[in-house]
Amino acid sequence: MEKTPELKANILVEALPYIQEYYGKVIVVKYGGNAMINEELKNAVIQDIVLLNLVGIKVVLVHGGGPEISDLLKKIGKESKFVKGLRYTDKQTMDIVQMVLCGKVNKNLVTMLEAAGGQGIGLGGMDGGLFRAVKMVEEDGTEYGYVGDIREVNPKPVLDMLEKGYIPVVSSVAQGMDDDTTYNINADTAAEKLAVALKAKKLILLTDVPGLMRDPKDETTTIHRIRVSEVPALQKEGIISGGMIPKVSCCVEAVRQGVERANIQDGRVMHSILIELLSDDGVGSMFY
């Protein structure tokens, strides 16, 4: 269907109250998964972020880079090892994580933002003491090597860049507090902690599923609005399980710590960030 000038105008008018609501506010977007591999989706995410920035919404992009890390490990003949869904990170893997996240992935995203007319600036989690962490060890003694648990966030480097009109692109690594080392950080967790420290209005976790579904095999069962108080019951029912548990925990924690709303949404949907923020439709599962 060809869009008439009237339809195009209506789309912009529909966006107006949302632009007014988010103007001058901070939005943190966690970017990873398939949306980072597919070039068309990648361009759509970048365009969304530049557009939001140009209408006065302060966007911070926090990224992982799992597929790229796995690719490079494969090239050097090293197998990726996962423990309870988290990448086990030995010393050699940590060197590669830092090289890929703070180097290749971060700088590629900054370059794409520039090409789309935005001003991106790359920040590693170690820059300006942004993220400081200790080694992550579970209560049952499970450990993941050089994987960290963030204990301190210094939002100043990010706030300074936002103030100057830049779009900060933040890699999910942290400086060690308990050891002279760098730690690998789960990107969802890094985004959540940063959103809280920045007093963000919204946290968006882009993932490879439509949101939280009552039946994981049926996209029509996506739960679109979830009160944080409803989460324990959904866990009890087994609706929140597997890889969804840490994502939901990040959203719940963000909302409890003052972020107005947190979303888990499908990064495979073209322009899903704009649909969620600037239209009446919205996408994914929103925690409030």
Observed structural traits:
about 290 residues; alpha/beta; eight-stranded mixed β-sheet; four-stranded mixed β-sheet; about 40% helix; about 25% strand
Structure description:
Helices cover 40% and strands 23% of the residues. The chain has 288 residues and is of the alpha/beta class. An eight-stranded mixed beta sheet has the order 5-8-2-1-11-13-14-12, with helices on both faces. A four-stranded mixed beta sheet has the order 7-6-9-10. Strands 3-4 form a two-stranded antiparallel sheet. It is globular and about 60 Å long.
Write down the overall geometry: globular
Summarize the biggest pleated sheet. Answer: 8 strands, mixed
Low-pLDDT residue spans: none
Q: Give helix and strand order, one letter per element, not per position.
A: HEHEHEEHEEEHEEEHEEHHEHE
Helix content: 25-40%
The number of helical elements comes to: 9
Number of strands: 14
Percent of residues in beta strands: 15-25%
- Helix-and-strand structural type: alpha/beta
